[in-house]
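SAMPLE LOG
Freezer: B-3
Tube label: C17
Construct: single chain, 133 aa
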Amino acid sequence: MPFGHEQLDVYRLSIQYVAWAYRLAKRLQGADRHARDQLLRASQSIPLNIAEGNGKGTDSDRRRFFEIARGSALECSAIQDCLAACEMLTPDDSEEGKTMLVRIVSMLTMLARHEHGVREDCGAYGGLEGIGG
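STRUCTURE (predicted):
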């Protein structure tokens, strides 16, 4: 049985973006280390916060993590702009990443505004409702 966050399109797309960011990071060397490392951290933050937020019991907690994930996606966009300005990222590569980011930000904006039914069900994990919270 998959986890609830694995059912979210935004989670699956964010994992695709992480893979894209890793492929890009392999091509960046030397002076680009800081931007590369920041891109990897920010890209990973997107699916990590989606998963954690989807497991929260209250809508306000859920919304907070979805907003953090959205902020990380916007940070990735800015990192891509910096890399493009330094001619370390081609316009075509930037477009590929930004296309995913626009979709991710759009979906997270909607998730943060509304209550949605896809969330973790503590009962699905063998009746551990009273443990840890």
